[in-house]
Amino acid sequence: MREKIEKVMKLFWILMCLFTFSVSANTLAQQERVSLNLKDVAVRALFDEIQRQTNLYFVFNTELTDRLGQLSVNVKNETVENVLQQILKGTGLTYKFRGDLIVIQQEDKKEDVKKGKRIVGIVIDENSGDVLPGVTVKLCSESSVALGTATDYQGRFVLTLPVVKGALEFSFVGYETQKMNFTEKTDSLRVVLREKMNELEDVVVTGYQQIDRRHLTAAVTTVKMSDIDVPGVNRIDQMLEGRIPGMTFMQNSGQVGATPKLRIRGTSSILGNQEPLWVVDGIIQQDPVNIDPQQLNDLDFVNLLGNAIAGLNPDDVEQIDVLKDAAATALYGVRAANGVIVITTKKGKVGPPKLSYSLTGTFSTRPRYSDRGVNLMNSKERVDVSRELMERGVRYTGVYNSFTDWIGYEKAYLDYFKYGSISFNDFKERSAYYETLNTDWLDLLCRDVFSHNHSLSISGGNESAKYYASFGYANEEGNIKGEKNERYTASVRVTVQHKRLQMQFGVSGNVQDKTYNPSDLGIMNYAYNMTRAIPLYGEDGELYTYKKGNYPFNIIREMEESDYTINQRNASANAQVQYRFTDAFKLIGTASYSMGTSDDETWYGENSNYILKLKDANSSMTRSECPFGGELKTNSNRSSSYTFRVQADYSKFWDKNKDHFTNASIGWELSSSKYNTTANTERGYLKDRGMTFAALKGEDYSKYPKYFDWVIRNYPKYSKSLTNTTSFYLTLTYSYKDRYIFNVNSRADWSNAFGSRSNEKLFPVWSFSGRWNMTNDVVKNVSWINNLALRVSYGIQGNMQNNQPTQLIINKGGYDSSKGGYISTVEKFPNPDLKWEKTYSFNAGIDFSFLKDKIQGSISGYYKKTVDAFLSKTVCDVNGVTTYVVNSGNVENKGIELSLNFNPINRAVSANGKRGFVWRFDPQIGQTLNKLLNDRIKQKDKTLQDELTLSQFLNGSVQLSGTPLNTFFSFKYAGLDNQGKPTFKDLEADRAEELHEKYKNLSKKDVWLAVLDESGTRVPVLQGGFNNYFGYRSFSLTVNFSYSIGNKIRLLRIASGEYSAVSPKPMQNLRREFMNRWRNPGDEKITDIPALDIEGGQDKGWWNANKYKVEWEPSGSATIYSMYDDSDLRVASGNYLRLQSLSLRYLFPRALAKKLGFSSGYLSLSGSNLFTWCSKDLKGQSPEQSGTSSVVNISVRPKYSLNLNVVF
């Protein structure tokens, strides 16, 4: 009995506590206090102000509250309950507190009770806590009549129901559908919706259409900007690494502002631009500078000028859609052969004004000698090399034949042993000094930096007009001293809706100011290759110099006496007018205009090594090419473009059951792009004297004949490029019962950039595609399959090489006094027979979702074949040109793509908006195999076959049938001989007679194929990433990895070139692997590092001897040491796994945010490029660094960021 009483008492106290908590919550809400001073305002404005000052929400029926008319309230520190009593007294309305909800309703009347159930409520977003307008609310019922409503702009709803018990369903695009039960005691609901944890978004934006993903027949990957945003990374293209299956990402430099190279599903064009097309809000974007495609395609070229979206603020971006196959890109015509990336920017949303501010501070670390990627000798190790060289009597070539030019340990050695100018103790003291000096060039030339990024935006509006405006500022400091990038962005977008008329207007602009060191200074080359055994400053406190080109050189002075600046300004405006004549038919007109400037300047001061060589200061001034001041090189680019488009859309169901649906669009487009470029070089520039120029009188030129000769040969260069294009396009979609969807796209382009034969075909670009939604057909009753669809597409894409005219174009140059007339050159040779480059594309894919969307994804396979590909062929220079473009090649690309999304744990959200534990795992895989099938023209005439060079084989630019593009070759290393010199297979000295007879009658190409071996491709064949998201309550953790597989990398040069390690100059450092070099006979059995060469490293092999020498040699003019650097021994795997980003975010609870003065916000701590796992054979070299390049680029640096985002 006692136990029963105790149980009853416990239950009583539990119920009392629950009741007390409920009463307490309502009581606390009633006692919230406000101060109001409002005059003649609508009741809605009064409720908004109370809501702003408190944690309370109002739910009401506007038809009831509109009766109150205009109100005036003047209270100070009054309770909300008293305020409501005052304004509702005598109105027939009353209020009820439900937690933090205040329900405004009619006073109860007994006769109304039997009429049904009336429920009011509010719907909010799980993450932001923002109200959600437009949410569909309907009664769950088996009746054919749907009873429901939608939330208003404040997220509120009122619904009168015929039943007192049941369930309501809440659905909204982009959010998971949720059901909530109600009973006779329920009169209000607070509903929390969460966004779909799903990369397969509901709407795909192609730029011309917005397509429901369930009807998508093409290969498109969609990502939300909020999912890929990485604080501290200010470029959208860099955020795409590892996120898009089938997209190859290559970043060859860590310099601030360096543009990555992107390839979508391989390389379809050899000579044309291989980068994807960028589209922003339906408008094609053009690059700020019209860079030669061959230069852009060079894998070693570092593009600091930027691409078409370099000035776009990532905070303004809502969604990115990557279009891959012909069905997705056909509507873009000939410019879409390499895929299309469509960016949709943010627009205003219905609701009160929201002011958002984001601040990001980023810390980036410089390279250090302790880094894995910096494998260089310290001072003691380097002095040991110098000691061995000097003791063996090294003989340098060039300037170092003069012993007086030697520095460091070598100079001390000569001063004691050769000249006797110092004592033995002095020599020992200097040697010890150089051995322990360890000058930190990486610290002197690089820096740890702090950058900051600010973004401010405001948005809001109503059903009639919505707006979004933003301003951004980014100050990104480079890790190389003196380098930085400042960017200002601004944009405004307005959407107006009036009945059947919709208008959208947008303007945007950006300013970028970049500062670099001139590329020929080679800052990182210097840091990597300068010995640490010499100081920055001499004993006299002056900069320590050595001779370079007979003139003193110090890198710090060179950095002070030179710079390279880029200033870019871009502005654009666009408008779209849409009128819906009927529910089925609408007409859309689009217009846009953009303009930009890009000015870059390279300056060398009069004390720089570059100008000292031009002055020829060691000789008579009559030989000077720059007697006064320095040099200023300028490039000025002016670009503009416009687009006009008219499109008609027709969509209709053709039967009462809505089984047959058709959507058709037809459009016309006119576009034009123009570039005007001016390039000039002027000497005598005095930057520190007001940026003026030294002036010479006419008679003074006779004193400087070489300078005068330069002046008459130097004149500004102007170029203009104008491309006009008109196009017609058509798209047709048919759907039967939402099971079978068929689509046809076609587009025809006519342009002044095309040759005469390119216009022979009326529709060079078309596609046909289909989709089978099996979940609406054969598996519709399988409960664990939520979505299963098959996609297939086939199409033909056309491409035409620009600037291939049908007539001869002459470049009329300036006057040449030495020739006694004007100079003209052939600018463009007539090419009337050039045809379309055609790409046949097939794609098949499956989209799936299983187990209540816990497993989702898509898998695709594709095959692309390009025929009549453009190749450049060598021709006789009697034509006035040395190369000619012909339809000569066939290129094949094929691969598979896999995108997965796992949601193993996704706890339900409680009514108070708090979430449980969430884990999402998203792996991405994309494989692309590329091959040049044929590189010969289809005729017996061999005159247009290209003449290959050895450098093309070694750097991967050679084009050979049956090999992937960007395949490079290497000499076949066969070990060291008994003198420590490298030897090579098929070039053995003991086979000299045999090999000479074999090679002398072969072509260069055949000999090189005999002595070289295929090393692999420089472009990865498999890339992707896997991303993890963990969420609990207000915390979330994102961990993103990216990987790259299948490419090979040439190791940095150690034995040849300017920085030859086998015969290093006194100022030169070596990589630490040279500590394992050959030293004594027999070492060739235990090491592959060559011996030091006291002869200067000029051995060119037996084949260069007079006995065997022919017109050309198997190795060109290379030495055996450059062949060693270009051998297969110096090739490593480029595979890597990178911890791309790690981010911890804290979402401020709504109550805390309100106390801090804003409505919502978050704080995040993140890092990017944190660690890279790669092959040990790289010996510390970064996968981004390549030995095929003549310069050492700074690697991509780790960054650590703190980001604060608040909404007011």
Automatic annotation (TrEMBL):
Residues making up the signal peptide according to the UniProt record: 1-25
Topological category with respect to the lipid bilayer: Multi-pass membrane protein
SMART domains in the cross-refs: STN
Gene3D superfamilies on file: 3.55.50.30, Carboxypeptidase-like, regulatory domain, TonB-dependent receptor, beta-barrel domain, TonB-dependent receptor, plug domain
The UniProt record lists the keyword Phosphoprotein: no
Domain of life the protein comes from: Bacteria
Subcellular location: Cell outer membrane
Coiled-coil stretches noted in the UniProt entry, renumbered to this chain: none
GO process annotations (BP): iron ion transport
An annotated GO cellular component: cell outer membrane
A Pfam family matched in the record: STN
Keywords attached to this entry: Cell outer membrane, Ion transport, Iron, Iron transport, Membrane, Signal, TonB box, Transmembrane, Transmembrane beta strand, Transport
Main location: membrane
Domain annotation Secretin/TonB short N-terminal: ranges: 56-107
Record-linked InterPro entries: Beta-barrel_TonB (IPR000531), Beta-barrel_TonB_sf (IPR036942), CarboxyPept-like_regulatory (IPR008969), Plug_dom (IPR012910), Plug_dom_sf (IPR037066), Secretin/TonB_short_N (IPR011662), TonB-dep_OMP_SusC/RagA (IPR023996), TonB-dep_OMP_SusC/RagA_CS (IPR023997)
Family: Belongs to the TonB-dependent receptor family.
Protein known as: TonB-linked SusC/RagA family outer membrane protein
Source organism of the structure: Butyricimonas paravirosa
